[in-house]
């Protein structure tokens, strides 16, 4: 039975019992009604408690069940009902704080390819992916996801593997090279020979990794349960002594009522809901109370590079050309030829020309050479733009190591442009802030090349030995698990589909969700809705304040409860009045917990 149903049933029974006793003047029936329903709910809680104990955890429920059962035994059924209402109310609030948490795989599954364009006797037939066989030839249209692993049959292909490796730049593939499912085809239709069944392909392995990581989350004890055992022992000790000295079992029930763990159950969830609300005001979504607890306790943070420490947007970095032409003239020509292309590098070139307010030239003719580049005519002069192998003649002796576009005029080398992924302007300050907050292990996990990764790490202030490059999703998971085992709770900050398994396997997954993949956002515990890395440190700061307030509120409740237990042990406080006192304690705990909502 869900917590919400327990609360609704308890409230309904309470109203009916009040009507029966005070309107129809049938207190016996009201007593039996309350007693039966309270016993049923207490029994269901007892079964849940046994399951919790079998897992090695000691929760607060045992004390609540003792309070309900003892008051029923001594005939204080109204006190039992009050305790039950507060208990189910607290559990319902805790469930409410976690209701958004169960969507981890849906987005990733929604994007999983289901069909492949199989070529049979020269005809394209859409076939269910599970029916595609090794050795068959499939066709992948422009900008489509590659549905299954295979070797490239076409002469060339431009492939975006960001969803698998996190590398922002497109990769040039040659005939015979392996193409992995989950990568995105460029702007040319390609063919490939299937080398693996759908169930064994890279993208399906990615889905399985997320599923496995979600099924085995890092163990964590909720805040209230950490205080449960000592508080329960104190309550039993005081109640047992009172019973022994007075020889009256009612005295034990009276102590149990004021010892009811409602403040423990209410204070933490209310503080967490308030803290989650405060997080949302800063553009951060924390999906449940457990996540905000773990976020406050993390000791290490791993960062993806592309789209996380960097913007994921490619910019023109360097322009090199022959002396007979200026930077502006060179960029103007290249942008004019690339203005109608959908290639990611072409868009960066055109954007660079706009920033310099360069007018685009009229292009007389334009043609694209598959897998190589483009050729076009401006003012009766023929230009070629593409990779170095497309230009061939008069190339520099040392070619740039970065992603580059080379240009020739009438068959003679004219120049080249290089591109870079841009660092987030707030990234260095964020890393510095996190170090000041006490984080000693800040690492980078990226699918990008070592040289690029080390350069970005140096700019943001990460040590070179904290950089792990050329990582596949499996590598990221392994490193995160190692960090957790060696150094404690570890958060992962990422944005792409390739980060989803790592986000799920980390103690806390933090997704940069403003432009990132939905799968990463759904898998993560924390989603940053604004494109601002400083929200990582801010969300941790709020989480720490929230947990601090939650602990203070729990302690306030426990101290007041302990004082009342000593008073109740003397017989001064009847069980029903004790239950009413519990309401006062609950209000104090709630007011204290709501401080987490303030700035």
Describe this structure in words.
The structure is a single chain. With 599 residues, this protein is of the alpha+beta class. Helices cover 51% and strands 19% of the residues. It is built from 23 helices and 22 strands. The longest helix is centred in the C-terminal third of the chain and has 35 residues, at 534-568. 47% of the residues are buried. Mean pLDDT is 81; it is low at 97-108 and 212-221.
List the helices and strands and how they pair.
Layout: H1 3-23, H2 27-54, H3 61-73, H4 77-97, H5 106-111, E1 115-120, E2 123-128, E3 137-140, E4 150-152, E5 156-160, H6 162-165, E6 171-174, E7 178-179, E8 184-185, E9 190-194, H7 202-215, H8 223-226, H9 228-246, H10 249-258, H11 262-281, E10 284-286, H12 289-297, E11 300-303, H13 305-309, E12 310-321, H14 327-338, H15 344-355, E13 365-369, E14 373-378, E15 381-386, H16 388-391, E16 404-409, E17 412-423, H17 427-436, E18 441-445, H18 450-460, E19 467-468, H19 473-487, E20 490-494, H20 500-505, E21 508-512, H21 518-523, E22 526-528, H22 534-568, H23 575-593
Parallel strand pairs: 11-18, 11-20, 18-19, 20-21, 21-22
Antiparallel strand pairs: 1-2, 1-3, 3-9, 4-7, 4-9, 5-6, 5-8, 10-22, 12-17, 13-14, 14-15, 15-16, 16-17
Helix pairs in contact: 1-2, 1-4, 2-3, 2-4, 3-4, 3-10, 4-11, 4-23, 9-10, 9-22, 10-22, 10-23, 11-22, 11-23, 12-22, 14-15, 22-23
